[in-house]
Design goal:
Strands 5-4-8-2-1-11-14-13 form an 8-stranded mixed sheet, covered by helices on one side. Strands 16-17-18-20-19 form a 5-stranded mixed sheet. With about 950 residues, the protein is of the alpha+beta class. Helix content is about 40%, strand content about 20%. The chain contains 27 helices and 29 strands. The chain is globular, with a radius of gyration of 29 Å. It starts with about 20 loop residues before the first helix and ends with a helix. It comes from Clavelina lepadiformis (Light-bulb sea squirt).
């Protein structure tokens, strides 16, 4: 999130946060404001009592009278906060007032009032009760200009004497009362305001698309999470400050309005303006509100007991692209109702795909808003991965209807209670509609490995975050730790308590705290109680909450060492220690309340056993007895959030078994063994020859999971060694390794869901390492499309074909794809072209593309960060891209630095290959220069610095070892 100027627009420390007005200016402002209020009254009627507020028509907008955006209140002298000494100085809201009910009436004007300048007008009222006597009403407000602010006592209807101002550093509207508000009494704060309907993807904003008639159509939509409801109307914008809402939205034909609840009435108000009024919401957090004014079409599932509609651009709906989401939505909803044993609480679940949206989707209660790529699916031109993305994101957002919406975290530091749950339960929901996709297996390579790779850094953080206050702090929490690690811990809990206790605990937890707020303490209490009452299940020896706190209140995770006392011994000693990717990191910094010791649910299996054993491991060593000469595997089936290391003999026994009969070892464990081995070697806990030898069984094992795990691990070697002498033998080895898989799957599409995924891996790997036949085939298919105008490339292979043809081509291939990109209406196909454009190896084309990225007439703002990331993962484009980003950082930050832009993503991708002292100095200089302009990327810069230091040492320690092993292998081929 970007920084905020002081109220008066000056940066002087003596005036920051203050309104500084001369006496003459105050008089002038009062006169102008009175004129404005009279005008507003003529247009919309004077401000009536709560529930009957009309918006002034936006084609005659209210104008501000001060460049600062502060409008002087009528009936009271203008006052302003006196700097950082009052209750407005705290970024958190005071606890003096408790909101009860809002009436929000918004009128977005979809026609510009001047070139590229759009506005919305609004009125709002909020009823609140007074918990502690106070002279101030402090409520969130951002980028809103006020023409009227009135406070009334509800019981008497008497207006209370007050004055108001805004305090922009903390995004507050501050209303100062002449006399203190009385404890126990209820009041109403009513406002009339105007805001810009910008294209900044936050709050109430505008989006646009080009219809089939080549007309530009503007719509209004919202993204409130986490701190942008205040940009649409003044509100108590914290998740625990829940209330009910009455929403009214204005629109003109052919537009209509959508919000969280069903509409009650649509009435003609003023000329061609209509206003739709919606039913009252349940008690909910402000960030879950959603407003859309559009001309879209929809499809509806007629068999669902809950109205389930999919909205999208008319041509997308006409083409049937909403049908898949329509069909799976009620099945997932009903499955969740059964799984949680808690009914979906709303009468409808609308889902809408908008052209411009910052996130993948947003779980607004009853009106989920998506990027088009996350909701729309065309079986004729979209791939299996596109289909899975739709199913997974729909399941994720529907899971939020319980986790996040029905119950919400008391504060953003517990965001994992929303996102961790949804990220785990999405697998359960998707499996309910697509049981052949092996979603439970995919979790290992999609979320478990991703989480552990980030969490192995000292610059990681605990799941329950610390020092979360500002919008930037909050935005930074939408990261791998909240999503993937949160999901991993919940999955681990599910596995050791079993489905019965897991579901019972969730049911009781949801029923007890519905429409309220929670912390992890309540969740763990209810799971612990469920375990205690479920036959055959035991809580951890130290108690459920105590054990699980070690996983969420400290960062990182352990490596469990399983080592024989001697090569001939049957005794295996188990110890745990913190795992860090940097072997030279200081283990005691930062400190942990648990001294980096975890209560580990440890599963293990010895060769020839048919079921695994669970034991609990803490700070005491444990000794096991295993059969002589047999391998053993810890964390069998990879449900635990930890790594396992073995003595060299056991690694050799496992490697021999994989080479001689890999089917005997569970496929999730095969994937986990590869990831563990490579990451342990990276951390200098294992010689690199062990994970390299471990990959040899992939010549026979064609399953997606171990291959995906291996390709992810080897991608690190490529980043480190892509410009070293080791890359030659590495590419030769990889071509030999992938050869059997490539020949087995061929270019003929078909097979199971994961076989289609694996074909992409096979062809992508073969072409990526320069397999002549693969590259030629990709180029021929692309050129056939280019010359005939007919695209016969199977959807599953389009990204691979496009990328390789552009990488091995020149300007003609790139320009052809660019024209297709500019004119493509299907969002998934457009995304494939976008990714492929970043595959070019031609410097001047790379530079031209970088210029295009920052021009939103070419590239939508929502897509800019992903293109930067794709270019940074391109060996030929990464240096130029990093230089460009550093050069243009001020522009990027000023334009995109509003919270939605993935600063962390581009920092991670553009520095992932850093492995020299020169690159480290570049990174440190970037941090020093832009320390206050990193947005949500602050933590990512620290992680990048740590990773770069680790990478520098890694190359010194491992480059020769890897080069020697690969050279020996290549010489024997």
């Amino acid at each position: 999130m970007g920084g905020f100027d002081s109220i008066d627009g000056r940066n002087s420390s003596s005036t920051k946060g203050k309104v500084v007005l001369s006496k003459g200016a105050v008089v002038a402002y009062v006169i102008v404001t009175i004129i404005i209020i009279v005008t507003v009254g003529l247009l919309a009627g004077l401000l009536p009592k709560r529930g009957e507020i009309d918006c002034p028509p936006v084609d005659k907008p209210v104008e501000t009278t001060a460049s600062s955006g502060v409008i002087v209140s009528t009936g009271a002298d203008q006052t302003s906060p006196s700097g950082p000494t009052g209750p407005w100085a705290d970024v958190r809201l005071p606890k003096d007032l408790v909101p009860l009910h809002y009436v929000v009436d918004l009128q977005p004007n979809l026609e510009p009032v001047s070139t590229d300048y759009y506005v919305f007008n609004g009125t709002s009222s909020v009823d609140f009760t007074v918990k502690n006597a106070t002279s101030y009403i402090i409520i969130h407000s951002n980028k809103l200009n006020y023409s009227e602010v009135i406070v009334k006592e509800i019981e008497t209807g008497m207006e209370q004497s007050s004055s108001f101002s805004t305090y922009e550093p903390n995004q507050f509207l501050v209303v100062e009362m002449s006399t203190k508000l009385v404890v126990g009494k209820n009041y109403t704060l009513s406002t009339v305001f105007m805001g810009e309907l910008a294209d900044d993807l936050g709050g109430l904003y505008r989006s646009s698309y080009t219809n089939e008639a080549k007309e530009s159509i503007v719509i209004a939509t919202t993204q409130m999470q986490p701190t942008d409801a205040r940009k649409a109307f003044p509100c108590f914008d914290e998740p625990a400050m829940k209330a009910t809402f009455d929403i009214k939205l204005w629109h003109k034909d052919p537009y209509f309005a959508l919000s969280n609840m069903p509409n009650i009435t649509t009435e003609v108000i003023d000329g061609d303006w209509k206003r739709t009024t919606f039913d009252t919401t349940p008690i909910m957090s402000s960030y879950l509100l959603a407003f859309v004014v559009c001309d879209f079409d929809y499809v509806q599932n007629a068999t669902s007991k809950v109205q389930a509609r999919i909205y999208g651009r008319p041509e997308q709906i006409a083409n049937g692209n909403g049908d898949y989401a329509r069909d799976i939505t009620p099945v997932i909803l009903e499955h969740f109702e059964t799984f949680f044993n808690v009914a979906y609480p709303l009468p409808k679940t609308d889902q809408i795909a908008v052209p411009d949206f910052a996130a993948g989707a947003m779980e607004n209660w009853g009106l989920v808003i998506y990027r088009e790529t996350a909701l729309l699916y065309d079986s004729m031109i979209n791939s299996a991965s596109n289909k899975q993305r739709v199913a997974v994101v729909v399941a994720h957002e529907l899971a939020h209807q319980w986790f996040g919406n029905l119950i919400s975290p008391a504060w953003w530091d517990e965001l994992w209670l929303n996102e961790g749950f949804a990220s785990y339960v999405e697998y359960i929901g998707t499996n309910a509609v697509e049981p052949t996709w092996r979603m439970n297996d995919q979790f290992v390579v999609s979320d478990l490995h991703r989480a552990m790779n980030v969490d192995g850094l000292t610059s990681s953080r605990p799941i329950v975050a610390e020092n979360v206050e500002t919008p930037s702090d909050i935005n930074a929490l939408f990261d791998t730790i909240s999503y993937s690690k949160g999901a991993c811990i919940i999955r681990m809990i599910n596995h050791f308590v079993g489905d019965d206790a897991f579901k019972l605990g969730l049911m009781n937890y949801l029923n007890e705290f519905e429409y309220g707020t929670v912390t992890h303490k309540e969740l763990f209490q209810y799971w612990g109680n469920a375990v205690a009452t479920t036959p055959g299940v035991e809580n951890p020896p130290v108690g459920f909450s105590n054990a699980m706190n070690t996983w969420i209140l400290q960062m990182g995770y352990p490596v469990v060492n399983m080592k024989r006392e001697s090569t001939t011994s049957t005794n295996v000693k188990l110890t745990q220690e913190r795992f860090l990717l940097d072997p030279n990191a200081k283990l005691d910094e930062p400190t942990s309340p648990y001294s980096y010791v975890w209560d580990v649910p440890f599963w293990y299996l010895s060769e020839d056993e048919t079921s695994k054993t669970l034991l609990w491991l803490n700070d005491a060593d444990v000794t096991l007895t295993v059969p002589a000469g047999k391998y053993f595997i810890g964390n069998y089936e990879a449900f635990g959030y930890y790594r396992v290391n073995y003595d060299d003999k056991n690694w050799q026994l496992i490697t021999d078994k994989l080479n001689g009969g890999f089917e005997a070892i569970d496929v999730k464990s095969r994937a986990q063994l590869i990831d563990d081995a490579f990451q342990l070697a990276r951390a200098k806990r294992l010689d690199y020859t062990i994970p390299l030898r471990l990959t040899e069984f992939l010549r026979s094992d064609f399953d997606y999971l171990p291959w995906e795990s291996a390709l992810d691990a080897i991608a690190y070697l490529v980043r480190m060694l892509g410009r070293s002498k080791a890359y030659g033998p590495l590419s030769t080895y990889m071509l030999d390794l992938v050869g059997p898989l490539y020949n087995n799957l061929t270019w003929i599409d078909g097979g199971s869901h994961l076989e289609q995924y694996q074909r992409i891996n096979a062809i992508g790997t073969a072409c990526g390492y320069g397999h002549p036949g693969c590259v030629q085939n990709a180029t021929d298919k692309f050129n056939e499309w280019r010359t005939t105008g007919s695209n016969s490339i199977t959807p599953n292979l389009r990204t691979t074909v496009y990328c390789n043809a552009i990488a091995n081509g020149g300007s003609e291939e790139w320009d052809f794809a660019w024209e297709k990109y500019k004119n493509e209406s299907n969002s998934q196909e457009k995304a494939k072209l976008e990714y492929s454009l970043a595959c070019t190896r031609t410097p001047w084309i790379i530079r031209r593309f970088l210029d295009y990225v920052l021009d939103d007439t070419y590239v939508r703002r929502q897509d800019a960060s992903s293109i930067f990331q794709d270019l940074c993962y391109n060996e030929y484009a990464r240096d130029m891209t990093w230089d460009f980003i550093r050069q243009e950082w001020d522009f990027i930050y000023n334009v995109y630095g509003t919270g939605f832009f993935s600063f962390s993503g581009i920092i991670n991708s553009c520095t992932s290959h850093f492995s020299t002292d020169f690159e480290l100095q570049q990174l440190l200089g970037f941090k020093d220069t832009n320390g206050d302009k990193l947005g949500s990327g602050v933590a990512s810069v620290e992680q990048a610095i740590e990773s770069t230091n680790t990478n520098i040492q890694w190359r010194k320690d491992n480059e020769e070892v890897i080069f020697t092993w690969l050279s020996d292998q290549v010489s024997s081929l």
